[in-house]
Amino acid sequence: MQGTTIRKARHGLMALALATAMGWSHAQAQTAPALQPQEGDVVVRDFRFQDGQVLPSVKLHYATLGTPRRGADGKVSNAVLLLHGTTGTGRAFLAPAMQQELFAPDQPLDASRYFIIMPDGIGRGGSSKPSDGLRAAFPRYGYSDVVEGHYRLLTEGLHVDHLRLVLGTSMGGMQTWIWGAKHPDMMDALMPIASQPVAMAGRNWLWRRTLIEAIRSDPDWKNGNYSMQPVRWTDTVPLFALMTQSAVTLQASAPGREPVNQYFDKAVADARKSYDANDYLYWFESSWDYNPEPDLGKIRAPLYAVNFADDLINAVDLGVMQRTVPRVPNGRFVEVPQSSRTYGHQTLAHPEVWKGYLAQLLQDLPKKD
Q1: If 320 and its partner were Cys, which of 40, 144, 183, 196 is the partner (CB 3.0–4.6 Å)?
Q2: Residues 27 and 108 in one domain
Q3: Handedness of CA 239, 240, 244, 245 (dihedral sign)
Q4: What pLDDT does 34 receive?
């Protein structure tokens, strides 16, 4: 039904029942052996960014699970594209919980049935990024540029021109909306998770702007042309936890003043070891072009959006999904109620909570040979 709204707790129970009906419990999944991905790089030539800049070559890294299956027309018929979040890479989907709950035998994306493609978006992981050498001269990419990179990776590198599913979490969820509008005939289904199809504003942009300005105002950043990593800005990194973890999760992680101090110090220390300031800045600035709302009517594939009631980044009390999803011809959504099984925005990393909706989406699709 167009614009279907699903908000009540009984739908959370329905998702759990669907997962259970698939004959694979969470406890059983714990025994599944780890899957070994195939990894590779595709180099695309003369990549033109939205701002007009052209790089002679852009490297796009990816990992895959499963084997492509071709139909009578010779085209791959079982490809699934999975899109990661702002601070992640495609390997986020290779975490044990993802493998056990999604890719194991009889799970929704059983790797023996699907060809699962997990790219690193431009600016991240093994794909081209500022820290590779261009630093602040790297093009100011936006989400649409990242989606264009996905498209060229698929079509030019992997020779995939149709997808059974596009599924993304957080930033990847936002890019899923873009995929649906930009390439409406290329997929059978879409599942954006922990995202909303509107431009950045309010609290969501405020915390991002805070992180961005912390880097730009760091005296050691030197307009992005530093020779040694600036570190003062990393004191703002714990804001990420404030926005992405639920209050219950943070309270359990740091139940007293001293545990909070230790939590803060570890987050900052980890950031100083792990992050390049320019890469991090570009990650958060790259949402500058995100606004799929005007193009929602162009999305043709069935779309099932999943959000979480305790997610501060995509606040359900704004009524965004109620206002926008009815514009998607085959769109529906669910806002999963807060419970002991949810973790705020980071519920996206707990597929046991949302895989039932994925199973339902796939079951509703016409069968393929």
Answers
A1: 196
A2: yes
A3: negative
A4: 84
Tokens 């702002």, residue located: 86
For helices 9-21 and 351-363, what crossing angle results, to 10°? 80
Q: Is the pLDDT of residue 165 over 90?
A: yes
Let me know: does 306 contact 191? Beta carbons within 8 Å. yes
- Please give the average per-residue pLDDT across 49-74, as a whole number: 95
| 32 belongs to a structural domain | yes
CATH number of the domain enclosing 345:
3.40.50.1820
| DSSP 8-state secondary structure symbol assigned to residue 296 | G
Distances in Å between the Cα of 181 and the Cα atoms of 93, 145, 365 are 24, 14, 19
Query: Which residues, at least 6 apart from 213, have a Cβ–Cβ distance to it below 8 Å?
Result: none
Structural domain including 85 reads 4-199+292-363
**DSSP line for 281-294:** HHHHHGGGG---GG
Report the alpha-carbon distance of residue 198 to residue 365 in Å, rounded.
Answer: 27
Instruction: Please check whether residue 349 is in contact with residue 82, taking contact to mean a CB–CB distance below 8 angstroms.
Output: no
20 — pLDDT class (breaks 50, 70, 90):
very low
Residue 369 lies in a domain: no
Q: How many CB atoms lie within 10 A of CB 49?
A: 19
The identity of residue 45, as a single letter, is: R
In percent, how much of the chain has pLDDT > 90? 88
Strands (E), the chain: 4-6, 38-48, 54-65, 79-83, 115-119, 165-169, 190-193, 303-308, 331-336
Band the pLDDT of 369: cuts 50, 70, 90.
Answer: low
Q: What is the DSSP letter of 312?
A: S
pTM exceeds 0.90: yes
With contact defined as beta carbons under 8 Å apart, do 195 and 177 qualify?
yes
Please state, in angstroms and rounded to a whole number, the distance separating the CA atoms of residues 225 and 94: 34
Q: Which of 7-21, 53-67, 122-136, 195-209 has the lowest mean pLDDT?
A: 7-21
Structure tokens at 274: 């792990």
